[in-house]
Amino acid sequence: MKYEISITKTSNPKPHPQDESKLGFGKIFTDHMFLMDYSADKGWYNARIVPFGPIPTHPASTVFHYGAEIFEGMKAYRAVDGTIRLFRPMENIKRLNNSAERLCLPQLDEQGCLEILNTMVELEKDWVPHSEGTSLYIRPFLYGNDPHLGVHAVSNAVFAVICSPVGAYYAEGINPVKIAIESEDVRAVRGGTGYAKCGGNYAASLRAGQRAEKNGYTQVLWLDGVDRKYIEEVGAMNVMFKIGGKIITPELTGSVLPGITRKSCIELLKDWGYTVEERKISVDELFEAAQNGTLEEAWGTGTAAVVSPIGHLFYKGTEYTVSNNQIGEVTYKLYNELTAIQWGKAEDTHGWSTKVCNG
Ligand code: PLP
Ligand code: COI
């Protein structure tokens, strides 16, 4: 074991949710959390699992003032063979280290991080829900924790993991969502932090998200920050379109989060013989396709959102309906295949699903 983990179990376990259809997303937390400290002198130390609760933090801590925070989102599934499984966990760990590099936060040992995740999930395995469409959402996060106000790369940090039994991310479930294309605010620019999963990206997205919600839209679709015409991604997912039989998804330019669901969907689509173009796609091209009837499907991909059909797209006063506001054929096939692999129902030819323990 790379990081020696001490475990202090709670003496006061919480009741588990009775009605799994009401889980929602990220509202209930399990009995324990993982914490580990970092200092430039000692490296990572004091790896521990403790009862879930508040984390005492110095009021001058870097995380409060300068937003030195990154996170990941992954899920543990109760597979049909009774095992508890993760989906491509090393991809999340590598992305966490890439995000850390961008924000000058310390790197984690990849194998050690996997051991931490496995230990947490095994300890909390009874919290992995049973119903179809549910899972245990795992939220690893890492933040700078220097107790002084100078603006520098940090010398102290904390790595933490919390877990939450979840259902669908959107109230719509697998039904199409309404998305507003944002024409004022931008989420990220090349050279910025768009490709990193840092809290600041989400903080900057809230104003547009709130505006969209007020107008009846579920989330915002971001355009690029320079020309403001190329499609980037949705608030919590990457985006894909089926236009004239081909699949088109924005290329990873540095301002888009390199989604693990996106990468997996591209691999599945290629397996199925689709042409997948990772390239710039402008909002004009998209609406031309919507008008001439070649925009066949639109969907988002993400750990929380899984594969989520887009039924309406709004831009500068006009609303376009996509595939009659129904879930499209490719969207449905992707959702089914991906979830079947995650729940151990389909053959996992890519070796994406990894066993943590018996359930
Ligand atoms: N884009 C953003 C902004 C996200 O928050 C997420 C969710 O993690 C994604 C894309 C999808 O990434 P992944 O498929 O790795 O969950
Ligand atoms: C995820 O899909 O894991 C995310 O992080 C999306 C969101 C809840 C921020």
Summed up:
Helix content is 23%, strand content 31%. It has 359 residues and is of the alpha+beta class.
Structural description of this entry:
- There is one protein chain.
- This protein has helices spanning 62-66, 89-102, 110-123, 199-203, 206-214, 260-271, 283-291, 329-342; strands at residues 6-7, 32-39, 43-51, 69-71, 74-78, 83-87, 135-144, 156-166, 177-181, 219-223, 231-234, 238-243, 246-250, 276-279, 295-302, 306-315, 318-321, 353-358.
- The chain has 359 residues and is α+β, with helices and mostly antiparallel strands.
- It folds into two domains: 5-166, 2-Layer Sandwich (D-amino Acid Aminotransferase, Chain A, domain 1), CATH 3.30.470.10; 177-342, D-amino Acid Aminotransferase, Chain A, domain 2.
- Strand 16 (306-315) and strand 17 (318-321) form a beta hairpin.
- Helix 2 packs across helix 3.
- The protein is globular.
- The mean pLDDT is 96.
- Pyridoxal-5'-phosphate (PLP) binds at residues 73, 233, 236-238, 257, 259-262, 301-303.
Present the secondary structure layout.
Blueprint: E1 6-7, E2 32-39, E3 43-51, H1 62-66, E4 69-71, E5 74-78, E6 83-87, H2 89-102, H3 110-123, E7 135-144, E8 156-166, E9 177-181, H4 199-203, H5 206-214, E10 219-223, E11 231-234, E12 238-243, E13 246-250, H6 260-271, E14 276-279, H7 283-291, E15 295-302, E16 306-315, E17 318-321, H8 329-342, E18 353-358
Parallel strand pairs: 1-3, 9-10, 9-16, 13-14
Antiparallel strand pairs: 2-3, 2-8, 4-7, 5-6, 5-7, 6-18, 7-8, 10-11, 12-13, 12-15, 15-16, 16-17
The chain binds pyridoxal-5'-phosphate and 2-OXO-4-methylpentanoic acid (COI).
2-OXO-4-methylpentanoic acid (COI) binds at residues 73, 236, 302-304.
